[in-house]
Amino acid sequence: MKPENNHGIKRVFRATGFSMQGLKSAWTHEAAFRQELVLAFLMLPIALFVDISTVERLLLILTLFIVLIVELLNSAVEAVVDRIGDEIHVLSGQAKDIASAAVFMSLALCAITWAVVLGTRYL
């Protein structure tokens, strides 16, 4: 049931609270999210302190965020599929596999971007 008077600044605060709950849940229950977040925190200082242009720096940082965003969406798909039922179903497997492929693609994008930006600068 939707809460009444859920508009304006009150809606923004409620939405922010739900987002924080989602991040906490992902950190608590999703090992892949924890690993990718730690990796992002380790890579962020590199992106901030290497001698590259502002656009290149932004590309490095954006790809880190893309990996985290796609991992959150993958976790959401997995949770919904698991909520529907425990039986093996081809469409459930397909949904999970496609979401997992999206994570793989985001990781590939991140790796390629970092390799090109840093490789052209330092190799």
TrEMBL record:
Its cofactor is Mg(2+). Mn(2+), Zn(2+), Cd(2+) and Co(2+) support activity to lesser extents. ATP binds at residues 11, 30, 78, 87-89, 96-97. Keywords: ATP-binding, Cell inner membrane, Cell membrane, Kinase, Lipid biosynthesis, Lipid metabolism, Magnesium, Membrane, Metal-binding, Nucleotide-binding, Phospholipid biosynthesis, Phospholipid metabolism, Transferase, Transmembrane, Transmembrane helix. One of its GO terms (molecular function) is ATP binding. CDD domains: DAGK_IM. InterPro entries: DAGK, DAGK_prok, DAGK_sf. It is found in: Cell inner membrane. A divalent metal cation binds at residues 30, 78. The active site is at 71 (proton acceptor). One of its GO terms (biological process) is phosphatidic acid biosynthetic process. Substrate binds at residues 11, 32-36, 57, 71, 100. Its EC number is 2.7.1.107. Belongs to the bacterial diacylglycerol kinase family. PANTHER family: DIACYLGLYCEROL KINASE. This is Diacylglycerol kinase.
